[in-house]
Specification:
By secondary structure, the chain is of the alpha+beta class. The protein contains nine helices and five strands.
Length: 288
């Protein structure tokens, strides 16, 4: 059942992400296609330790709530391989800001994650000598595992927004003030907990709790009804503002967690080359 659900969702997810290519020299003969698993990702041009040729500019975009950086890299690798490139030099991957996400949620429009890169062909005869790695064929993987541990900024934002709006709207519709209050108080922290930032989540909770406590104490200390009404309105506005700021900051918590991961943009290497014992014996003495 799980495999069937994934198979049904794949076309929808694929439509959320697309990569366009602009050939730098359309008159140049096209090389044979390269499997995406053999297309290597480079973070900077200096990482390419060989002579290479630029083939095309890659422009990727996708729905920030349904895609992540790994899916964008896979899309770039697929398009580069189709053009006969065996490498991709990353330029930028731009995440939508918190303000853009809030505006998109209010207006009902999707926010876009955008990426740019250059598809290249690395000439194999000019590659520098690489450290020899012995690997069994069944352990060769086109993609390293650390990319699977990335926290999605879009999902963090969606969790905070949903955990805030759902109780708030349900409580308002059902005349349940405590349910609406729980959405404002607790909901914005959901995305921060998902992003692995519990201190940030608890900090927002404490700020809203302190605002509520101070507002309640001020109302009790006042004897005039119009002062009490004004204090209640001011406290409500402050709590809503703090909740909006917390929701908008959820993607930043996810990005902060990803930056602390040692291999955030782990290079998508091609399968390791298994060499003979003669090559192993020569490796320490062969020049680069």
């Amino acid at each position: 059942m799980r495999r069937l659900a994934i198979a049904l969702l794949l076309p929808a997810l694929a439509s959320c992400l697309h990569t366009n290519a602009t050939l730098l020299d359309p008159s140049r003969p096209r090389r044979p296609a390269v499997p995406p698993g053999l297309v290597r990702i480079y973070l900077t041009p200096d990482d390419v330790k060989a002579r290479y040729e630029e083939i095309a500019l890659l422009h990727s975009r996708g729905d920030a709530d349904w895609t992540d950086e790994r899916a964008m890299l896979e899309s770039m690798r697929g398009e580069a391989g189709r053009l006969g490139a065996n490498g991709v030099i990353l330029n930028t991957i731009r995440e939508p800001s918190g303000a853009e996400r809030v505006a998109g949620a209010v207006l009902g429009t999707p926010t876009q994650r955008k990426g740019r890169a250059v598809a290249i062909f690395v000439f194999p005869d000019t590659a520098r000598w690489q450290p020899v790695v012995l690997a069994r064929p069944d352990r060769l993987r086109p993609e390293p595992q650390p990319l699977q541990r990335q926290k999605s900024p879009g999902l963090a934002f969606s969790l905070s927004l949903g955990a805030t709006l759902v109780p708030l709207l349900a409580g308002s519709a059902g005349d349940n003030g405590w349910l609406a209050f729980s959405g404002i108080m607790i909901g914005p922290a959901a995305g921060h907990f998902y992003a692995g930032q519990p201190r940030r989540a608890l900090g927002g909770l404490l700020v809203r709790a302190a605002t509520f406590a101070l507002t309640a104490a001020s109302i009790r200390a006042s004897d005039r009804w119009y002062d009490q009404t004004g204090l209640a309105m001011a406290g409500a506005i402050l709590m809503v503002t703090e909740a909006v700021v917390d929701v908008a900051a959820a993607p930043m918590s996810a990005r902060r967690t990803n930056e602390r991961t040692p291999e955030r943009f782990a290079t998508a290497t091609s399968p390791s080359r298994v060499r003979s014992l003669g090559s192993l014996a020569c490796a320490p003495f062969c020049p680069p």
